[in-house]
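User: Second chain of the day. Same drill as before.
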Amino acid sequence: MNPETLKNTAHEIMSPGKGILAADESTGTIAKRLASIDVESTEANRQAYRNLLFTTDGVENYISGVILFEETLFQSADDGTPFAKVLADKGVVPGIKVDKGAKPLALASDEKITEGLDGLRERLAEYAKAGARFAKWRGVIDITDEQPSDYCIDTNAHALARYAALCQEADIVPIVEPEVLMDGEHDIATCERVTGRVLKKVFEALDGQNVLLEGMLLKPNMVIAGKKSQKQASVDEVADATLRCLRRHVPAAVPGIVFLSGGQSDELATAHLNAMNQRGEQPWGLSFSYGRALQAPALAAWQGKPENVEVAQKAYHKRAKNNGAAAQGSYSSDMESAA
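Assistant: Same format as last time:
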């Protein structure tokens, strides 16, 4: 492990006013996205869509890193240049999703555990050769009347820590993503309580695996009420609850926090991030690692048609620019109506 390499990569990703594009949808997930615009999920169509995103002019002013799916890491742009090189040449750090997805947790099948540790050391070496400099692993925590159990939190925290240690051994910055889902009926206070439990266990596990905090990034959920909750919190309430929870549980040594959007609308995810950054300097940088919240307008504009590429790129550029502003607390809703 080279601590300076890890620190430098983490700080590069956390460049002011920039964030991460999560373009790491699994084959099943990207198939659903493409189906929403009546496009078949062939390798050629997946490549064409990612090519659209990665070759958008000027987006590197707002995007510092891109998380790729394994297939995408080894694909090339239309001109034959490997996608990882396309990104690196624009000053964007290529990354890779390395987990193998959430599966039923043994003896607790209503809860999930993320798999993919077997063979990870060898895979990381191949990913590094292909140009990946950071990685991502997602743990999934659900909220119900009985969940999450301590068992679920502990096992996912342990897996996240083992993954992070293997990444750092390979000089790859780990993004640690413990996602408390917003699918339930819970209120914002319940989300804050559960998110705090999860973060506490995750950082205990990271410490137990000797993970260098200065050489990692955290990708948490925002503290937000469940989608089915009858009481949705305001933007200010979400910002205050999220920052309160993070200050209690995330060490100041962590250089950056890059939020997932978690199913929020495009504009709401931007507004929440902006509100947090408007509250002044925090112990860590606050930015974004959005997938659908960056891509949805571009996907809708593209419709799988070559003649729509330019307008789709403009839609993606706009969302990237607005979120870059939110990462500095300078976003306003007026920017949504701007050309």
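The domain at 3-337 is CATH 3.20.20.70 (TIM Barrel).

User: Great, on to the next one.
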